[in-house]
Amino acid sequence: MRVETPPSLTTDQFSRLARIVHDDSGIVLTEAKRGLLMARLNRRLRALGLAEYGAYCALLNSPGGASERRHMLSAVTTNVTAFFRESHHFDALTRQVLPPLIEAARKGRRVRLWSAACSSGEEPYSMAISVLECFPDAARYDLLILATDIDPVMVAKAQAGVFPETSVQGLAPAKLSTHFTRTGTSYEAGAPLRSIMRFAELNLHHEWPFSGQFDVIFCRNVVIYFDGDARRLLWQRFAAQLHAGGHLFIGHSERLDGPASATFRLAGPTHYVNTAPSPAGQSV
Ligand SMILES: C[S@@+](CC[C@H](N)C(=O)[O-])C[C@H]1O[C@@H](n2cnc3c(N)ncnc32)[C@H](O)[C@@H]1O
């Protein structure tokens, strides 16, 4: 039997790939991640029938390289997530954040929530469950949850709304039976959840297609992969994208720093309120 040696990534090739990943996504890959990158990309090289990384670098830099760059990002991103992860955020959402927004929605105001790095969807579906539990007729009003991610594979999963048993294990049985239908070993999100959700591919480091503002942004467990400049710029962009009094939730090991920290007031653990006056007034 012939045993094929997997291609290996030289220091120079690693630096070239890490630079592309950083330019495209803001994600920093340190030298310590070389083995991980290789393990993930070797599968990609096999799928493309490429024997070594020199050819892969050439493909990424070729005129058709943009689509392969998206595949590479998909391979390097970490998509770990869970329903009601950091449950205190959902307690704050239910108790403090949603009541005035529901009142506003009932009076006809547009209300928008954004899960800005939604991975396979557990986070935005947890937001939607929280909304429906306080506001069962939400779909009759102008309230939407936008779920976006850089990784098209994750966005497709989130949009499909079908979760394996391992993913729903942490959900309270009452939530599971109310909001999901079991099909074999999978659980499918019900129509009421889907009716208040929208999905799209979005790179946080690119232009955002929004003309209005959000009331709530969840951007959790993603800036830990970014460098300081990319992270601080993102906080400033969130401040501009939130209504005055809008809420920003970030991951437990993340911190709000740079110029935007003067704009946000701490409202709870890794939960911030925008104190800047709203430039536009209208929601997204
Ligand atoms: C660890 S998951 C976090 C998921 C969820 N927010 C949570 O806390 O459970 C990080 C997600 O960030 C996404 N991501 C990484 N870089 C991004 C970027 N530049 N723009 C948008 N999403 C990005 C990844 O694709 C991945 O799905």
General description of the model:
With 284 residues, the chain is α/β, with parallel strands linked by helices. Strand 1, helix 6 (122-134) and strand 2 (143-149) form a beta-alpha-beta unit. The protein is globular and about 60 Å long. It is 43% helix and 18% strand. The mean pLDDT is 94. The chain folds into two domains: 11-76, Chemotaxis receptor methyltransferase CheR, N-terminal domain (Chemotaxis Receptor Methyltransferase Cher, domain 1); 87-274, Vaccinia Virus protein VP39 (Rossmann fold). The strands form two sheets. It has a seven-stranded mixed sheet with strand order 6-2-1-7-8-10-9. It has a three-stranded antiparallel sheet with strand order 3-5-4. The chain has eleven helices and ten strands. The protein has helices at residues 11-25, 34-48, 53-60, 65-76, 87-106, 122-134, 152-160, 165-168, 173-179, 191-195, 228-241; strands at 111-115, 143-149, 162-164, 180-183, 186-189, 197-201, 214-219, 242-250, 264-268, 271-274. Helix 1 packs across helix 4 (65-76), helix 2 packs across helix 4 and helix 5 (87-106) packs across helix 6. S-adenosylmethionine binds next to loops.
In short:
This protein has 284 residues and is an alpha/beta fold. It has helices spanning 11-25, 34-48, 53-60, 65-76, 87-106, 122-134, 152-160, 165-168, 173-179, 191-195, 228-241; strands at residues 111-115, 143-149, 162-164, 180-183, 186-189, 197-201, 214-219, 242-250, 264-268, 271-274. Strand 7, helix 11 and strand 8 form a beta-alpha-beta unit.
